[in-house]
Amino acid sequence: MDKSKILAEGLSKIRQWVKNQEYRTIQVSKGDFIIKQHTQVSEVYWADNAQFSVLHTAENGKTLSLGDYHLADNFFGEMEFFSDGPSPFSVVATSDVALIAIPMDKFAELLLQDGHIAFWMNHRMSNIYLNTMSIAIERSLYPLKYNIIKDLVDRHTCNEKSQGHSYMYQEAQRFGCTERAYTRIIRELIDEGLVAKESDKSGVVPVNLDALTQSLEKYYQ
Known about the structure:
- This protein is an alpha+beta fold.
- The protein is about 45% helix and about 25% strand.
- The strands form 2 sheets. Strands 1, 2, 3, 4, 5 and 6 form a 6-stranded antiparallel sheet that branches. It has a two-stranded antiparallel sheet with strand order 7-8.
């Protein structure tokens, strides 16, 4: 079995299917909800290209970001389709995006018509689940300072470097902490000579990436 060929064929069939349909298009502006937490989803949405954040707000008012994403060929609402429950997360557009609204019954027909399509969908949902669980577990089991350092290292060592948020409270949300707690850790890292403010003061960058990476080792002991 060549998994990559199955996935490529499944995605190709989905793209062609979406292109051939005449469903309505919804324009979502930057900062608006694609899906809102606790709401029942009545359609599944498809985006050729989308930038968005996934957030969960607890009853105590604390908000945790489960990731910032820039994805091509993406569905929204498929998890809620399978669970038949309200969405546990909010999905917020971080840039303007055009969504194709697919009725639930038509989405079911799409999945049932071809094994390649169903295979692609299962693969995608598994990756989302594992990525989300990895973020949640690290946020839960490691101290705040570890998570901030690891995030900085990851963002400056991966091939496609992601960007932080412009506002401190948005950065704090990514770690499920208060703005005050996040600012305190950043100040510690600056005082330790590990990071510095960017020239426009909008974020921080590593001063010594190797030293920053090595500082993670003590949390593994």
